[in-house]
Amino acid sequence: MEDALRARIVELEQELRDTKARARLERAALKAEMRAELVDRQANAARVADRQRALFERGVAQSGQLQASERAKASAGYIEAALTTLCPFSVAQPGGCNELA
Fold first, then answer.
1. What is the residue range of 76's domain?
2. Tens digits of per-residue pLDDT, 56-94?
Protein backbone atom coordinates (compact mmCIF):
# COMPACT_ATOMS: atom_id res chain seq x y z
CA MET A 1 0.00 0.00 0.00
CA GLU A 2 2.80 2.41 0.92
CA ASP A 3 4.65 1.64 -2.29
CA ALA A 4 1.54 2.38 -4.34
CA LEU A 5 1.07 5.69 -2.54
CA ARG A 6 4.72 6.66 -3.04
CA ALA A 7 4.51 5.74 -6.71
CA ARG A 8 1.36 7.84 -7.08
CA ILE A 9 3.04 10.80 -5.32
CA VAL A 10 6.04 10.52 -7.63
CA GLU A 11 3.68 10.34 -10.61
CA LEU A 12 1.78 13.44 -9.48
CA GLU A 13 5.00 15.36 -8.84
CA GLN A 14 6.19 14.55 -12.37
CA GLU A 15 2.83 15.65 -13.77
CA LEU A 16 3.11 18.93 -11.84
CA ARG A 17 6.64 19.54 -13.18
CA ASP A 18 5.44 18.83 -16.72
CA THR A 19 2.49 21.20 -16.32
CA LYS A 20 4.73 23.98 -15.00
CA ALA A 21 7.23 23.45 -17.83
CA ARG A 22 4.43 23.54 -20.42
CA ALA A 23 3.06 26.76 -18.89
CA ARG A 24 6.54 28.38 -19.03
CA LEU A 25 6.92 27.38 -22.67
CA GLU A 26 3.47 28.69 -23.59
CA ARG A 27 4.19 31.98 -21.82
CA ALA A 28 7.53 32.31 -23.61
CA ALA A 29 5.87 31.59 -26.97
CA LEU A 30 3.21 34.24 -26.33
CA LYS A 31 5.84 36.82 -25.35
CA ALA A 32 7.84 36.08 -28.49
CA GLU A 33 4.73 36.42 -30.63
CA MET A 34 3.84 39.74 -29.00
CA ARG A 35 7.38 41.06 -29.60
CA ALA A 36 7.23 39.95 -33.23
CA GLU A 37 3.86 41.67 -33.67
CA LEU A 38 5.23 44.89 -32.17
CA VAL A 39 8.25 44.80 -34.48
CA ASP A 40 5.95 44.19 -37.47
CA ARG A 41 3.75 47.14 -36.52
CA GLN A 42 6.71 49.46 -36.08
CA ALA A 43 8.26 48.32 -39.35
CA ASN A 44 4.97 48.86 -41.17
CA ALA A 45 4.60 52.35 -39.69
CA ALA A 46 8.16 53.18 -40.77
CA ARG A 47 7.51 51.89 -44.32
CA VAL A 48 4.30 53.91 -44.60
CA ALA A 49 6.08 57.01 -43.31
CA ASP A 50 8.90 56.57 -45.82
CA ARG A 51 6.47 56.08 -48.70
CA GLN A 52 4.43 59.11 -47.68
CA ARG A 53 7.53 61.24 -47.22
CA ALA A 54 8.85 60.23 -50.64
CA LEU A 55 5.51 60.99 -52.25
CA PHE A 56 5.06 64.43 -50.72
CA GLU A 57 8.68 65.55 -50.93
CA ARG A 58 9.19 64.82 -54.59
CA GLY A 59 7.51 68.04 -55.66
CA VAL A 60 5.16 66.33 -58.06
CA ALA A 61 2.45 65.97 -55.46
CA GLN A 62 -0.88 67.26 -56.61
CA SER A 63 -2.51 70.06 -54.68
CA GLY A 64 -5.15 67.85 -53.03
CA GLN A 65 -2.70 65.21 -51.90
CA LEU A 66 -1.10 67.37 -49.22
CA GLN A 67 -4.47 68.22 -47.70
CA ALA A 68 -5.51 64.57 -47.86
CA SER A 69 -2.31 63.62 -46.05
CA GLU A 70 -3.01 66.07 -43.25
CA ARG A 71 -6.58 64.80 -42.90
CA ALA A 72 -5.34 61.21 -42.87
CA LYS A 73 -2.82 61.98 -40.10
CA ALA A 74 -5.49 63.73 -38.05
CA SER A 75 -7.93 60.85 -38.55
CA ALA A 76 -5.32 58.26 -37.63
CA GLY A 77 -4.48 60.21 -34.48
CA TYR A 78 -8.14 60.41 -33.51
CA ILE A 79 -8.66 56.69 -34.06
CA GLU A 80 -5.55 55.77 -32.06
CA ALA A 81 -6.66 58.01 -29.20
CA ALA A 82 -10.12 56.43 -29.22
CA LEU A 83 -8.70 52.91 -29.25
CA THR A 84 -6.29 53.77 -26.45
CA THR A 85 -9.14 54.90 -24.24
CA LEU A 86 -10.94 51.60 -24.86
CA CYS A 87 -7.98 49.43 -23.90
CA PRO A 88 -7.83 48.84 -20.12
CA PHE A 89 -4.16 47.80 -20.27
CA SER A 90 -2.85 50.77 -22.23
CA VAL A 91 -1.22 53.54 -20.25
CA ALA A 92 0.45 55.36 -23.14
CA GLN A 93 -0.74 56.14 -26.62
CA PRO A 94 0.93 54.00 -29.32
CA GLY A 95 3.43 55.84 -31.46
CA GLY A 96 2.04 54.88 -34.87
CA CYS A 97 0.81 58.40 -35.68
CA ASN A 98 4.02 59.90 -34.41
CA GLU A 99 5.88 57.68 -36.87
CA LEU A 100 3.75 59.06 -39.71
CA ALA A 101 4.14 62.69 -38.66
1. 2-100
2. 666 555 566 666 667 777 777 777 777 777 766 655 545
